[in-house]
Write a structure and sequence with these properties.
It contains 3 helices and 2 strands; from the N terminus they run H-H-E-H-E. The chain is mainly alpha-helical. It has one domain (4-97): 60s Ribosomal Protein L30, Chain: A. It has a two-stranded parallel sheet. Helix 2 (34-46) crosses helix 3 (64-86). The longest helix is centred in the C-terminal third of the chain and has 23 residues, at 64-86. It is globular. The model has no long low-confidence stretch (mean pLDDT 85).
Length: 111
């Protein structure tokens, strides 16, 4: 049985998750994120025709320019993990970054 985000991923090529974690100012994926990455990879393997766009975000610490660059590097880190760790073809994924704006995924009130 698929979870709601799996269905969204299959139908639209996107879903939102806060399950992929990074330290502030870093593009290195935290180890506790690999469960979420594995779930995404499983859906992509089950549905080989699905392509996705990975969009990174940041907190509001730092300048807008640095946050935009960091968010793009975070998205690329996720793509690279899906390629290297789970064997997902790179051509099925594109990346982008939004920095801290215009679409923050959470408030800036917690670490």
């Amino acid at each position: 049985m698929h979870r709601i985000q799996d269905i969204s991923l299959i139908e639209t090529g996107k879903f939102s998750t806060t399950g992929i974690k990074f330290d502030s100012g870093s593009d290195k994926i935290k180890p506790e994120s690999y469960g979420t990455l594995k779930e995404i990879a499983q859906v992509l393997k089950e549905f080989p025709g699905v392509k996705i766009k990975i969009v990174g975000h940041t907190d509001t610490d730092g300048t807008p320019e640095k946050n935009l660059d960091l968010s793009k590097r975070r998205a690329l880190s996720v793509k690279n993990a899906l390629i290297k760790e789970f064997g997902i073809d790179a051509s099925r994924m594109e990346t982008d970054g939004k920095g801290a704006k215009p679409e923050p995924v959470d408030s800036n009130s917690t670490p």
